């Protein structure tokens, strides 16, 4: 994150409110007292965004201390400092009332045959086999009755002995 900081410039209006700009002209307001930035990354994650780091680096403060205390190792150690009491055996757990059990919703199936799982490629037929491509010959072209346009000219020059038109 620190490597990205030189591409940002900041201006301060007072000791806690700053405007951070990038070279493209984008601007973000950063308040280091309220732990807010207009990019919303600081508020959403609790981790200091690059704009706030750009403001904090020249002040020579640890920007890690501006992160939410949830991410601190000291808070983690504090949470698990006391003994963790063991749970009772499964047999000793309180019995649940069977009338209060939450059951899953009923399975509703759509009407008709289920859709195939796999989408077929363009050159596949219904059985999943790839169709063989035929070579274009005079016989195939005449047989299909598509002897027109550039195909006719191409075949006429190529096989002038076989073309009789």
From TrEMBL:
<dbReference type="InterPro" id="IPR007527">
    <property type="entry name" value="Znf_SWIM"/>
</dbReference>
<dbReference type="Pfam" id="PF04434">
    <property type="entry name" value="SWIM"/>
</dbReference>
<feature type="domain" description="SWIM-type">
    <location>
        <begin position="28"/>
        <end position="60"/>
    </location>
</feature>
<protein>
    <recommendedName>
        <fullName>SWIM-type domain-containing protein</fullName>
    </recommendedName>
</protein>
<keyword id="KW-0862">Zinc</keyword>
<feature type="region of interest" description="Disordered">
    <location>
        <begin position="114"/>
        <end position="134"/>
    </location>
</feature>
<dbReference type="GO" id="GO:0008270">
    <property type="term" value="F:zinc ion binding"/>
</dbReference>
<keyword id="KW-0479">Metal-binding</keyword>
<keyword id="KW-0863">Zinc-finger</keyword>
<dbReference type="InterPro" id="IPR006564">
    <property type="entry name" value="Znf_PMZ"/>
</dbReference>
